[in-house]
Records
---
Amino acid sequence: MNAEQAEIRQTAKEFVAKNIIPHAAEYDKSGDFHGYILEAAKSSGIFAMAVPKEYGGLGYGPLTQALVLEEWGYGCAAMGTTLSASILSMESVLIAGTDDQKRRYFKPMLTAGIGAFALTEPAAGSDAGAGVATAIKSGNDYILNGPKCWITNGGEAAVLVVFAATDLAKGAKGLSAFIVERGLPGFIMGDREEKLGLRSSNTVFFFMKDLRIPATNLLGSEGDGMKIAMETLDLARPSIGALAIGLAQRCLDECVKHLHERYPAKMFPGETLQFDLADMQIQIEGARQAQHHTMALREADLPFSKEPAIAKTLATNVAMAVSSQAMRLMGSHAYTSEFGKFMRDAKVMQIYEGTNQIQRLVIARSVLAPSKVIAPAMKEGAK
Ligand SMILES: Cc1cc2nc3c(=O)[nH]c(=O)nc-3n(C[C@H](O)[C@H](O)[C@H](O)COP(=O)(O)OP(=O)(O)OC[C@H]3O[C@@H](n4cnc5c(N)ncnc54)[C@H](O)[C@@H]3O)c2cc1C
């Protein structure tokens, strides 16, 4: 971390302490979207941290973004997910967008707008190529039809990257990616998901019924969708790792705070308990280093594929384990909905942006064929 990154991290820490931590439990309870955070973050430009400077954004590199996301994960994984899912969608545009598409897509983020990445369908989760949503060319337009589900920010985003088949018969190879602006006729919003965790993060089902968009909204070429989606997920997975590491560190810090309060005058009881705390810190630090290594590879423009999958799997498993260990050490004091939020939020991190089983497929393929360094899962259409 250089001096500039340290300063950015400190600013993020202060923002989280002031705006996120005090409100996280309240929004978790209501399940309402934490829209206020967009307003609070407006002056910082943080929702445009992944937008290159030439498009008016902050142009933070991957490691700097991860430092910010770790702080947001420390404060509230739901609010962190809003930020990271928006960045996820931006990655697709950065990968495949034209200059004009980038300018249009990034514009809302400059004023704390958010984006969404819509790949999943009821019948297409891990097997992302099994979707039924279609995009049929009609003159200078495409007409989109079909369902999308479990879409983070879907009900709040100003712009979305939506995946749909331009040739359904080709399966994963027939998938294409499109920019869809909010508010078009034919974009039918479904219900908000009532989730176990990440409760104030907006997650929705939506349906597209003859939704017409200009053909210029196609990202890349027809059939590029799966490639764009897999490359996007490769780039974005470490962000989930960053949120998970922040969540795990928060659990350890809360646990230590509780133990200090409970045993004010003497040492913590027994070495076993101290070993437990040390083990938690070992897990967190290991995950953090794996994640920073991934970011360093990316910043050096070196090829990577198994590393983001390793970083995501490790960090999210650590978040689940550490949140559970913290509850064990704190006993009934942690068996509250407020502390339980950490475990509930950690659980989904093992599921979204590719389950940890799918990450293992990516890792295994890379181990078996190390020369194929770019998203080996792409061929199978496995998310
Ligand atoms: C809170 C939340 C937010 C989300 N946000 C988004 C979003 O913004 N955009 C988006 O597009 N999607 C989003 N998703 C969807 C998410 O990416 C999918 O849920 C995920 O990819 C898994 O798909 P699935 O739920 O259909 O599970 P399935 O694919 O049905 O998997 C079920 C189980 O089978 C295992 N499995 C499946 N295939 C294999 C295999 N080949 N080998 C071994 N095991 C396998 C999985 O690991 C899992 O344990 C979100 C989901 C949640 C819960």
Note: Residues 375-381 have pLDDT under 50 and may be disordered.
---
Amino acid sequence: MSDYDYVVVGLGALGAAAAWQLASRGHTVVGLEQFELGHTRGASHDTSRILRHSYHTPAYVRLTCEAYDDWARLEAESGEQMVTVVGGLDLFPPDCAISPVDYVGSLREVGIAFEELSAEEIRARWPVFDPPPGTRGLYQARGAIVPAARGTAAMQRLATSCGATLLGSTRVTRVTDHASHVVVEAGDTAYTCRGVVVAADAWTNRVLVGLGVEIPLTVTLEQPTYFAPPHLSAFQDVPLWIWMDEPSYYGFPCYGEPTVKAAQDCGGPVVDPDRRTTEPDQEMLDRLAAFMRSLLPGSGPVVRSLRCQYTLTPDRDFVLAPVPDHPAVVVGLGSAHGFKFAPTFGRILADLVTTGETTSDVSAFGFDRPGLTDPAYQANWMV
Ligand SMILES: Cc1cc2nc3c(=O)[nH]c(=O)nc-3n(C[C@H](O)[C@H](O)[C@H](O)COP(=O)(O)OP(=O)(O)OC[C@H]3O[C@@H](n4cnc5c(N)ncnc54)[C@H](O)[C@@H]3O)c2cc1C
């Protein structure tokens, strides 16, 4: 038996952030991770993630403003540069699956500056892009890259330096709510605490077993890929980009190495996170390489591919809320676009588990929404 104020289950980006925030407020915290810290079997490894203002609702755009502020706090407290501003370009081809109207309207409502560009203007400004005629570009100067593994490690380090105990190779097998306290079982140890943050992403439902809730989650196995452009200098000053159609793709300029990274969004097979391959998939690679040859003809040969899990809710909205009837058990789930919000989610999850409230707008991220409760809800991940 071991006593802490709070237990955090899962130490990827979200759990690391929650442990850091809870420990920095003076609580005793233990974070439990089933694999070694910094492993590559979840969603928070590899080099880079997109941080951007452009989103499909004003509420999301407002939350991105908090994200930029919270990354700045992480930079100040870690002493490390985290945010590399490169500009962000959303590309909407004719008849695209994702409507530019929501993006433009949301940025405008929140007062975030942006530019609208034609295909010709995009080509003139960044000659590496060759978008089809009629493509509309939405350029936002603050689009940025944040480090994935390095950012997660920094939050783990901050958690530890604030007094949290972080344990790798420690799998949580059961969480039981006793009203006055919660018990978290891992191996031979039972941790008694006031509250638990579950940040287990693809394994969330396994951790919640016994609490009477199951979130309709789909786990897919994605495949970011690195290309080596022969004329590297042309790719130094390009923005990160997102192809806003079905299929959807995204990519980065050079970041810390002489490559450019790209991937399909939601392009991988549905998998069981405990039984999936770590090997690259040739068909996915061929599909991405063909797209890269058409949009970025100079992106060059493939250097390497890796696998990474997406854990998707049907509406692609996050879960940031206490489990129904179990206010001491709070879930944080990023629905495969949560890295940019990791420092923000850490703050929100710490608020929710300690006080039941937060100043951030999490009204869309509860358990009681149609995307999670209506079995007939039509999943839509292209937002
Ligand atoms: C290829 C790819 C590209 C992405 N691009 C972006 C992007 O550009 N911008 C963006 O904002 N987001 C992006 N995302 C999404 C973002 O990376 C994820 O939302 C985020 O990293 C999820 O963090 P997490 O801590 O919830 O999950 P994870 O990193 O998977 O961490 C969950 C942890 O819980 C542990 N765990 C599970 N069960 C247990 C248990 N029973 N006991 C102990 N530990 C347990 C797991 O081992 C794991 O370490 C991308 C994701 C992928 C895969």
Note: The chain has two domains: 2-44+149-215+314-373, 88-141+219-310.
